Amino acid sequence: xxxVTEFLPVSSSCxxxxxxxxxxxxxxxxxxxxxxxxxxxxxxxTILVLLGYYRKDWLRIGRGLAGRDTxxxxxxxxxxxxxxxxxVAVCIVKPLTxxxxxxxxxxxxxxxxxxxxxxxxxxxxxFQKYAIRRPITLDTLARRQAIFIGLCQAFAxxxxxxxxxxxxxAGIFVGLxxxxxxxxxxxxxxxTASAQVAVSTLSHFQQSLELLSLSALCGVLTAFVVGSCTxxxxxxxxxxxxxxxxxxxxxxxxxxxxxxxxxxx
Length: 265
Description:
Layout: H1 2-5, H2 12-23, H3 29-41, H4 43-53, H5 55-65, H6 70-93, H7 104-130, H8 143-152, H9 163-174, H10 178-203, H11 205-211, H12 214-241, H13 244-261
Helix pairs in contact: 4-10, 4-12, 5-6, 6-8, 6-10, 7-9, 7-13, 8-9, 9-10, 10-11
């Protein structure tokens, strides 16, 4: 599930939590927190996919840090601007969402997040259609625009919104083409996920070690293999259909989730 949904703008964490609810409907609260840490842990699989898929960009950034590639250094600075903006936004917004737990209330919010994200896709498609401006590239992306994209990443704290969707739509809004917006979103996502794994591991070191098992390693490997296939499928689909199919999917899943949660058993 992680490998399939991580690169799609459909909220991978939402699908992971739904999968766990279906597989383990009576899981205790302490088990729920372990699930969240496990989800963060298997992000390693998708991080490895992004490191491999965008290896030329990472090498370019490395040359930039070594003083041998100006464009690579500029890209690194823009990504760091986005990451720092995300950290500031998360520090401000996180306390407001601390009451959310893995219960019926959060699943209701998750359904609303899926629904609103689907609507946002259709609105952005119309915005793109009627906006008259010259598209920008990663090289011409301004740092203030990178900061704006980073701030929008904080919307992912709301269950069901999707980190990739919020940054892709933000990228399109500032003038990036769809492919360039996805490119920047995935580079930023790789750095963000790496930081998230590092922080989670260090802050819950003992619990993270307890999760390190053969099943966890299998989860990482599966996420890597499936993610490698999914990222290629995503770009082929976007070349022909754009984001519209994901808009329909999010709205359908959001409505279904709200119906299931609010229907008595």
